[in-house]
Amino acid sequence: MREMNKEPLISVIMGVYNDQRFLKEAIESILCQTYKNFEFIICNDCSADQSTKILEKYKKIDNRITIINNKKNMGLAASLNRCIDISKGDYIARMDSDDRALSDRFSIQVEYLNEHPETSVIGTNVYYIDNSSNRYSKTEFPHMKSISLKEAVKQTSLIHPSVMMRKEAILNVNKYTVTELTCRAEDYDLWCKMKEERMVLQIIGDYLLEYREDESGIKKRKYVYRIQEAKLKFYWMKRTGMTKYLFIYALKPLIIGMIPKKVYKKLHKRRVIDV
């Protein structure tokens, strides 16, 4: 194995907002990575539960952890941008505060990016887990699946908390866009911006993340966010000249938002529809 100081530094970025229930599991999964050369930057977006105490506890345990405390609630995109602003790594790894990274996630992703300098973003397959951390489904993306501009605009396969990016790539598109339209779709907008710049976005076949879909989160998803998502898709379709071909996909968030919650939950659990 190479000496640690010769291994690329990873900056792990994560936003936290009232996530006390699963926060410890998420943090532990990062601290238990086989790849050790990383900094863990966590932005606490004015949490009102026990998240703040949990974060302070882990900060004392591991000096790789840096905590940013927002003075007001800023949302995920702005919180992630604050993490990026102080990051020192060559690579940026995303993490969500209710998911669990498998122990070899970083080592596999770093190796891939080192061997493929043309690739800007690498995502992975994931296992879906419920609130009891039981796996109930999984993605089945082929190894080295490349994301085209058309797919990015339509609905990308990249799962945000599974990705690792070159820092220079996300800086080249001015980080995450912070607007009302990107409030719940900051990742979709980012992939579109990157593909517009002809960056290479790929998915490897390895399963490196357990992606939690909180049932309460599904219940709370407001229709206004569906409208914003549809508007954002219309924007990108118009910008890239794909409205004629992908119009129906812009309506998808609105249609899904009208499905009764009980029916939606059943379809979503079976992976018939996406969030």
What can you tell me about this protein's structure?
The mean pLDDT is 90. This protein has 2 domains: 214 residues, Spore Coat Polysaccharide Biosynthesis Protein SpsA, Chain A, CATH 3.90.550; 52 residues. The protein has 11 helices and 10 strands. Strands 1, 2, 3, 4, 5, 6, 7, 8, 9 and 10 form a 10-stranded mixed sheet that branches. The chain is 43% helix and 21% strand. It is of the alpha/beta class. β1, α1 and β2 form a beta-alpha-beta unit.
Spatial separation of the terminal alpha carbons: 41 Å
Radius of gyration: 18 Å
Number of helices: 11
Mean pLDDT: 90
Note the quaternary state here: single chain
How much of the sequence lies in strands comes to: 15-25%
Number of strands: 10
Pfam family, one: Glycos_transf_2
Family: Belongs to the glycosyltransferase 2 family.
Domain Glycosyltransferase 2-like: 11-170
Keywords: Glycosyltransferase, Transferase
